[in-house]
Amino acid sequence: MRVVVGGLLVAAGALKVGHASNLAASIAAFRLLPATIVGPLALALPYLELLLGAYLVVGLFTRVAAALASAQFLLYAAAIASAVVRHIPANCGCFGPGDVAVADWPHVAFDCLLAALAAFAATRAPGAFAVDGKLRAA
Fold first, then answer.
1. 104 φ, ψ to 5°?
2. Stated pTM of the model
3. Best CA proximity match to 1, nearest among 48, 50, 65, 96
């Protein structure tokens, strides 16, 4: 489970790297954050996703990485739900500039599912084949 969530985060982060202006536009479209935060967030978010995803795939700092990933997915779900409720036709930008998926309730449900999977991984960490488990055994 941690590998699936981690792989998804790595893929999402990798597709956003180098496209900060597109990501900033997607974030700004939700009309939730001040403009002074949108730019730095668009620069940092892909690398945060890559880092969390890599930690989950490898199984290093598994509990912390999974808990942060769960919180991140809940924030995404809340932002998307906010756009749906306010009838804002925002593209999520989840998978880079080519992602034209609009904010909708199935998207909120998917982010909540990912949050639950990450939370489950955090409670069951480190899991099979995780580096954390190998370090404890040594």
1. -150, 170
2. 0.89
3. 65
